[in-house]
Design goal:
The complex is a heterodimer of chains A (585) and B (364). Chain A is α/β, with parallel strands linked by helices. Helices cover 33% and strands 17% of the residues of chain A. In chain A, α8 packs parallel to α9, α14 packs parallel to α15 and α18 packs parallel to α19. Chain A starts with a helix and ends with a strand. In chain A, 51% of the residues are buried. With 364 residues, chain B is α+β, with helices and mostly antiparallel strands. Chain B has 15 helices and five strands. In chain B, α1 packs across α7, α3 packs across α7 and α12 crosses α13. In chain B, β1 and β2 form a beta hairpin. Classes of the chains: A alpha/beta (585), B alpha+beta (364).
């Protein structure tokens, strides 16, 4: 349709029907099919009935942030043409063992509905879901076009399930197994890929521990010429890595295996020269047990690196500094705190384009070893990397002044996750609470979407958050606050809040109930080890029928205490698959 | 510049009590309100403990040096007092040798100063709260061993026990926190909830053991645990398996870990340790130090090590402490559980193949 025709058809239509869409449905659908962001799509669907319909018919990917907020039947009814599903299940604190086993989030019911309604399903991405081997086999058999499976932080399955996927999914392009509670029964699953199979583009089995059949892997990599992501597990040696790279120099993302084999000079040189051919590499990870002496082999491959994940390689500061000197384009860096402040200084010096930094603790539970990073390292990075906007930082000491400096240097933070590992620890220099630190963060970083607080915090922190963090969507709080007022400030002030997770804070029923209307605009609320009682929860459940209020009781706790509370909006009603330890109110 | 340690003493003399005093009321508030750590019950006890021992610390400069080696879980009052005696023999050099901060570059000076301030408070408080009050509490068996089904993250590389000193660590600054057992950061079992005094829980020590804190994914902790614990499990793969052991040094504020698999002779190990711990002698860490200074410190440490000021000892599988160097290297790697660089005066009584288990040397 030319624009002049459009105009004519518009003019010729009366005022009443002008409210109707002027475009034929197909055109509108075509236009809307180009929309990828699910939030944009949600907005589009609210415009009018026509647009709602056009949107639902044109949607091919659905993102469900909480698997219990909706049923698979409802999803299938609304969106008939889905090819790709992303589902998230358990509350985030299940990563830290705060959620009981068998809590739920089982994928099977979803798969059954999908098999009936979306036989052409191609992609499934799951996070914190429970998935069994039977479900994986069912998946592999039910969807002939199935292409991409991504499992992150899931549990309940074993390598047998992977074998089923490898055996049956003839069109598989992506198998991405990340950080799951997988029962590793051996590496034979990899041999299950058929001999003619060659479509794999993404293979990530870094999660697994057992040896795989290297011969099968080598042949597989040799066949799959489109492979761009290969992340090996620890059982793959340096020598084997070199052989793989020879057949896959086109790799864009590489996760090495163990980086510590004893190599002869010749073997080392071979590795180095093979790596130097990998000019497409923009992501490097793995490096398990990395030995400093072998890191230089990586240097030639690092020139275009944008993401370096060293979070499983306990490097020292010098080793990191030397490596970073070869990575000028780095945008994302994950390290262990073994690199210490000196290592972070090197980050500030060598990586001016850095946007994301994550520093993980090498020994989070071991107090004797008091190394790691301090506020000095963070400050050093902030001076050298003004584009920093995402940080996850585990440390054992921090000061208000340091954080103020950091956000002054880097005002564009969107994600600020600071974990001072000793709960309730004050500014170690002034002995004051860390209120002013987070106050500085929310005042300066107007784009802040995600915040995790730690250290000794009074209600003042939450006053600041409520007053200034107007774009905040996710807030994680632990061992903080003084009274209900703190939580009330957040609930009252953060208009865009979607996820609130709280543990071990003195917030009680008054705080919980102050957010009555707010919770429907949020995805979920988690409160554990706070002062909330069963009565408070019951009241909440009674007042807000469209919220699911679930309480997880702990053994031996007081009858009236609500140990762990999980509140989320849902159009599916209370769930029926909760285990006995979870009370749905 | 005077090493921070001396600074500690100065501060200790002048105003140990004040930071402590500052801490207490504030902490009193915070602790009492939270109460989930059961801290309120301690705060009053501790305040008295603090003030009284601050007097002691003023009188005995050498106490400060002692506190630096709080890294060891075995550092309880009996041992500490022993240390005191030894130190009292007037080894002022040691104080100069064990400043608390690793870095001495110009850029870090302000930081160093301020951290020093923190350290001072921390140590005096540590000393106070710890030896006086905690000493009594923790002398008995107060080790909380992980595993035993306490939580799913029991694969931590724990060959020793941990206990927690919640009150001390909440109140104190970094070094204290760092060095003492963290109440919540380390232990991860049952959570003591707000509003419930948890003193009645696991009897003496073992304060709040916290599930899921710090918030590190189980997958990650398991993976890192197995990587540092590779030791005895022979992978059957080419290349040496990593054998990580902890190394402590008398007077150093914290421990290090070394991979014995990286070395093939005692000499390599010893020179690596020299490098590693030379940063405790003149505040240098790693190769970033100015060469001249580093050499100075390394040689000084070498002198210390070779001039039999210090000896390298290790704890074997049976829990006995022995002098390093006697058995063949391969056997050493297999039996060594941890290393300690101790003063030769301490090591008297440790024959090369001694089965001696003098308490003061064997605290683990």
């Amino acid at each position: 349709m030319g624009s002049s025709e459009l105009k004519r058809s518009k003019d010729s239509v009366s005022d009443e029907s002008a409210r109707r869409s002027s475009f034929p449905d197909e055109v509108l659908e075509r236009v809307l099919s180009l929309l990828k962001s699910h939030r944009d799509r949600s907005s589009v669907s609210l415009v009018c009935k026509d647009w709602y319909n056009a949107e639902r018919w044109s949607r091919t990917h659905v993102f469900i942030g909480n698997c219990y907020s909706v049923t698979p039947e409802i999803v299938a009814r609304r969106f008939p043409r889905i090819r790709s599903v992303t589902l998230k299940g358990k509350p985030r604190f299940s990563d830290f063992n705060l959620v009981p086993e068998n809590w739920g989030a089982d994928i099977h019911a979803w798969l059954v509905v999908f098999a009936a309604k979306y036989p052409f399903l191609e992609e499934l991405r799951l996070k914190r879901m429970a998935i069994s081997d039977e479900s994986l086999e069912f998946l592999a058999i039910s969807f002939p076009n199935f292409k991409a499976l991504s499992l992150l932080s899931c549990d309940g399955f074993s390598t047998n399930g992977l074998a089923a996927i490898a055996t049956h999914c003839k069109n598989l392009t992506e198998l991405d197994i990340q950080e799951n509670g997988i029962d590793d029964k051996g590496g034979s699953w990899l041999s299950c890929f058929p001999e003619r199979f060659m479509s794999l583009e993404v293979l990530n089995f870094a999660n697994l521990t057992s040896d795989i059949n290297f011969d099968a892997l080598e042949k597989l990599v040799g066949r799959c010429k489109s492979m761009r992501v290969l992340k090996l597990n620890r059982s793959v040696s340096l020598e084997q890595l070199q052989r793989l790279l020879v057949s896959a120099p086109q790799l864009a993302e590489l996760g090495t295996g163990s980086f510590s084999q004893e190599l002869t000079i010749r073997e080392y040189e071979e590795l180095e020269s093979t790596l130097s051919i990998c000019k497409n590499m923009h992501t490097l990870s793995g490096l398990w047990d990395a030995k400093g002496i072998y890191l230089p082999a990586l240097y030639p491959a690092c020139s275009h690196l944008t993401f370096l994940n060293l979070s499983y390689a306990a490097l020292q500061s010098v080793e990191l500094a030397k490596l970073l000197a070869h990575c000028p384009r780095l945008k994302r860096l994950w390290v262990l705190d073994t690199v210490e402040d000196k290592g972070l200084e090197a980050v500030g010096l060598n990586c001016p384009l850095l946007e994301e930094l994550r520093v993980f603790p090498a020994d989070p539970f071991d107090d004797e070893i008091v190394h790691g990073v301090t506020e000095a390292g963070f400050v050093a990075v902030s001076f050298g990397c003004p584009r920093l906007h995402y940080v996850l930082y585990f440390c054992r000491q921090m000061t208000n002044a340091a954080v103020a400096t950091i956000v002054q240097n880097c005002p564009d933070f969107t994600h600020f996750r600071l974990c001072i590992m000793n709960p309730g620890q004050p500014d170690y220099l002034t002995n004051e609470p860390m209120d002013e630190a987070f106050g500085a963060v929310v005042k300066t970083c107007t784009k802040l979407q995600r915040l995790s607080v730690s250290g000794l915090l009074t209600d003042l922190t939450f006053e600041y958050i409520g007053r200034y963090a107007k774009n905040l969507e996710t807030l994680s709080v632990a061992f903080a606050g003084r009274s209900d007022w703190g939580m009330q400030c957040v609930l009252g002030g953060c208009s865009k809040l979607r996820k609130l997770e709280i543990r071990d804070c003195p917030f009680g029923n008054a705080a919980l109930l102050s957010g009555l209307e707010k919770y429907e605009s949020m995805r979920s609320l988690w409160m554990s080890a706070c002062n909330v009682t069963m009565n408070g929860c019951r009241l909440l459940a009674r007042e807000m029928p469209r919220l699911n209020v679930e309480v997880m009781k702990e053994d031996g706790s007081d009858e009236s205490q609500a140990d762990k509370v999980y509140v989320y909006r849902s159009i599916a009603g209370p769930r029926r698959d909760a285990p006995p330890s979870v009370l749905t109110l | 510049m005077s090493p921070p340690l001396l600074g500690v003493e100065e501060e200790g003399q002048g105003s140990v009590s004040s930071p402590a005093d500052d801490c207490i009321p504030q902490n009193g508030l915070g602790i009492k309100e939270w109460n989930y750590l059961g801290l309120s019950d301690f705060s009053s006890v501790d305040s008295s403990g603090v003030t009284s021992s601050s007097e002691d610390s003023k009188n005995n400069l050498n106490l400060k040096a002692t506190e630096l080696r709080l890294g060891l879980p075995g550092s309880q009052s009996p041992e500490r007092k022993t240390e005191l005696c030894l130190l009292n023999s007037g080894k002022l050099d040691e104080k100069a040798l064990f400043p608390l901060l690793p870095s001495k570059d110009g850029t870090c000076l302000p930081l160093q100063k301020s951290v020093v301030t923190g350290n001072k408070r921390g140590f005096s408080d540590t000393m106070d709260g710890f030896s006086e009050m905690k000493g009594t509490m923790y002398t008995e068996k107060s080790w909380m061993f992980h595993g035993a089904g306490m939580d799913s993250q029991s694969q931590q590389p724990l060959s020793h026990a941990k206990y927690s000193v919640p009150q001390a660590s909440v109140k104190k600054d970094w070094p204290a926190n760092a060095i003492q057992e963290q109440p919540c950061a380390t232990n991860r079992t049952n959570l003591n909830r707000t509003g419930v005094s948890n003193n009645s829980r696991s009897a003496p020590a073992a304060k709040a053991q916290v599930v899921g804190w710090p918030p590190v994914r189980s997958f990650r902790t398991k993976t890192l645990a197995t990587s540092s614990k590779n030791n005895d499990e022979v992978d059957g793969k080419p290349g040496p398996a990593a054998v990580f052991v902890k190394v402590s040094m008398d007077g150093a504020p914290y421990l290090r870990k070394v991979d014995l698999g990286m070395y093939s002779t005692y000499r390599e190990l010893s020179s690596a340790l020299e490098k590693m711990f030379s940063c405790f002698t003149l505040g240098q860490c790693g190769a970033h130090a100015i060469p001249g200074k580093e050499m100075l410190s390394e040689s000084k440490l070498k002198d210390l090590l070779h001039g039999s000021e210090y000896v390298l000892t290790y704890e074997d599988k049976d829990g006995d402490w022995m002098l390093v160097g006697d058995v063949p290297w391969e056997m050493f790697i297999e039996t060594c559980k941890r290393l300690k660089i101790m003063k030769s005066t301490d090591a008297i009584g440790l024959a090369p193949s001694a089965m001696d288990k003098s308490k003061k040397d064997c605290q683990t």
